[in-house]
Amino acid sequence: MTLRRARFRAALVGLPLALALPLAGCAGKPADSASAASGSTSASAPPTSGSERRLEVTFAHGKAGGDTGRVQVAKGTPVALVVTSDVADEVHLHGYDIEQELSPGTPVTLRFDATVAGVFEVELHEAGTVLLRLQVS
Amino acid sequence: MTVLAHGVGTRTDLPIPIGLALFGAGAAILLTFAILLLFWRKPRLGGAGSGRPLPEGLRRVVDGSPLRLGLQAVVLVVAVFVVVVAFTGPDDTPHNLAPWVFFVTFWVGLVPASVLLGPVWRVVNPLRLLHRGLRAVVPRAPGAGQVPALGLWPAAGSLFAFLWLELVSPHRSDPAVVGWFLIGYAVVQLGLALWFGEEWFGAGDGFEVYSSLVARLSPWGRRDDGRLVLRSPMTGGISTPERPGLAAVVVVLLGATAFDGLSRTVFWQSGPGAADDPVSGTVGMLTMIALVAALYLLGTRLSGRLAGQPAGVQPRRYAATVIPIALGYTVAHYFSLFVLDGQTTWILASNPFGTDGTDLFGTYRNVVDLTLVGAGTIALVQVGAIVVGHVLGVTLAHERALLSTRRARASDQLPLVVVMVLFTFGGLGLLFGF
What we know:
Chain A is α+β, with helices and mostly antiparallel strands and 137 residues long. Chain A is 23% helix and 40% strand. Residues 1-48 of chain A have low confidence and may be disordered. With 434 residues, chain B is mainly α. Chain B has one domain (18-432). Helices cover 64% and strands 2% of the residues of chain B. Chain B is built from 21 helices and three strands. Chain B starts with 17 loop residues before the first helix and ends with a helix.
């Protein structure tokens, strides 16, 4: 292998590295804040006041209404998600893995701290309907 | 249990920040021009005959029947076990091992395994072992010798079938659906292999072809004289054999991953894909594959026309240069799934049948740690993978153009390069979530 070729190969290896370095500098902040997250969540946490984010969603005649679609929540916010369904079902918040039985017409509240970043589905098991997607960022 | 876009999973990634998206796009453009204009005026990568030879003893071990048959037997036992768990284990996806093993550990894990070790699935493919057994009963293959004419088109078909299952089909995460797919896939592949001979697997088994294509970018390779060599991944990529259908395989992979990205965006979830049914999914996936195919054909044919070369051979000639781009997309979309939801496999493996009190490895009570990698790291890996894949793709395309004519002008490749830049922008745009 000639010297010229060796130098070229070194350049080739350096290319992705050179690319990654400035990127690493750029994204340092979000990575740091993400590592501070704790995984503890609870469906039965005591109600918190003031800064709690309240979301309400209803399921009637096979359709979801209220806070549907993609709902953004700041990371670390305590969330109270109130779900009311006109049929018996089970509501499941993925990722945080919180499940609650629903009986017709009775509002059920899921309480948790939004500590894990990502996009998570809230769905009804029986109906198979996605009520909303919680975006924690 | 409902379904997330990619088979199984409990979460999807956040949209990448606008700053990272713009940075990635800018880096892709700048590096592209640097490669084309500044320091690459003649072919620099070795061909199929290059590489640093590895000891002959290593080749004998790797190619030897004991190793191959042994590994195939082990993988067969694992595969049968997974199918049994799919049907007799817990009914619900969060507690059944099969969907997690298949969609995350196997399908996503095949990529790092093949990049690091070479074409692993070819070596351990349990269907090859079953075929060998069946061959004793059915000694004659009526279609022997026809496989080269088929090229890689059958693999494009079987990959499409799998990707449709993974990304579109209803109930795709149900354990029983996964079990039936595995059985159906094995039966169809074995039937075709009995007809066409063992060669079939290298042309029609989508998983084997996928693993072998990804392995073109591994540091291990096989020289044209059969010798195992250590070589630059770029040399491996540029010496990918130009088989018919190679472009189709790459386009299907790229288009399906693009659809996976699309299906995670607010635009899709609240617009065309709001119904979340097989019709909208199938149309969406076919549209993305068609879009990628149209852009690719346009770019390669225009580049060929500018260079005064026959247009017909161009798509196949450049297909291998899209492999790194497809690989970059795959890493961008599935890295977090593998690292985070992939933990589920190891948790459930401790108690595959969900029986009370069973905890083989002491991991059954573990909980998936969704904070193992932060959102910032994930975004960084995503943008990095797309940009690095883009740079390798443009470089390989440039080298391929230089190899095809002695005096290739950089400007001749502009159409193809523009298409690759569009792919990169598309990939970043999907990660950004529109």
